[in-house]
Amino acid sequence: GAESRIAYLEGRIRQRAGNLADAAEWFREAARLDGSRPEPCLRLADCLFAIGEPAAAEDELLGAVETMAEPWGADAILGRWIEESFRAGRPPAGLLARLPERGKGFAADLRWLLERLAAGEAVRINCGGPEFTSTRGVVWSADRFHARGVRRIRVLDPRDPVGGPDASPLDVHLLEIEETDDDPIYRAQRAILGPSPGALYRVPLPRGSYRVTFHFSEVERDQPGTRGFDVAIEGETVLSDFDPGARGFAKAKVVSRERRVDDGRLDLELRAKKGKPAIAGIEIEMIP
Prior knowledge:
alpha+beta, 13 strands, four-stranded antiparallel β-sheet, 8 helices, elongated
């Protein structure tokens, strides 16, 4: 409504002028008048964090999640809460206890993540695919925390492993992946079809050093050199001109790199150069 928009603009004027305590009151009023959008609550939290009231900011954020009707609004607020909490060094177990009970979407993903972190387990994501248990009994999550891209499963006729336009729509499980016992991880992938600015995955994480393991396989073209892309962690390129098919069609390729996270979120990027970048799986392990 108009009154809420006016209150929000009054808050923005004061926030830009540095009058953060006054701005917070205007944002609180804007949220009270219209709680259907996350912006007033997010700006209110900005002010409270800036003036040294993190507990009040947390209460405002989590309170808004409980009443936010639109899932995307609740997701934006939860994202801000978890990143600020991890920046402040708060342990996953304590955050899990405060996480609102929302049964799906980002809240469910966040609950799954906090449970893994609290148990000291690695975070394993089957990119583009469902939950999967490996031959060693290791559980991989269904695809989570992707910011963009599309889910792709290559369906191939075993009589035509290249899978041209006339390939029969047979069960994807007929495709065998070499150099792994866990074929399902590599059959489904998350790919970028257009321009590739920004992160493909954004995974909330506590401050610390991590080993990130990428899983790739070329399952679309039986020719090396059909695709090439850079892989970046936290904005820094860790693989250049990477071709998942350089060693052959339908072969697992595993690459690990180590990086530190200090901003509450691990950003993973695939930067297109030739063809469509795609990734099959991600493992994230904290380095003691």
